[in-house]
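task queued by scheduler; priority normal; single chain, no ligands, no partner chains; default sampling; output format set to structure tokens
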Amino acid sequence: MPQLIVSVEGVEIRHVPLRKDRTTLGRLPDNDIVFENMVVSGHHCAFDLKGVADVFVEDLHSTNGTYIDGKMITRQLLHDGDVIAIGKFRIQYQAAAAQNSGFGATMSWLAEPQRSAHASFQVVSGSSAGLEMPVVKAVTTYGRPGVAVVAVSHRRDGYYVAYLEGSSQPTLNGAPIGVDAVQLVDSDVLELAGTRMLFRLSA
């Protein structure tokens, strides 16, 4: 789950998960994130969630500017660990919150879609064989960061899987998965860092 960690003079004061397609920050109360400080403009900046995991920060023509690495930005793709400066506030971007150990859901966002079917993955190899993991969110990631991570998205016409990151490329029914999402069908076999998982789809 992408999130922002807000600190002032090294003291963390707030954690903000980025659940929405667009999250606004400013001094006025109609923002999603409100900083009651005169250095912050009424509508200062916004965070846009694009696709599965890309987050852009956009300055909304603020008076004092939005900075990353000491440079004023207008709109910029954020990378894990980037620190945004607005006056005395420091906002660290984290691409995902603390990961679950082993395999399981590591982040899930966007609006909940209408569900017409029940989807799950059943682990069929390794020490977790037999474990069933329901797919219950609009976007869920599975895997081990740095090794292999995929995103499974629930769209109106079905479930899709795409490769996110890692040194070990996952496969679907023996074929490598790329960054372009591939639709899943019942009994597909996903192999992720040596662990095989069977996709189940039922009405």
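post-processing summary
- DSSP finds no helices and 21 strands in the chain.
- The chain has two domains: 3-94, 119-201.
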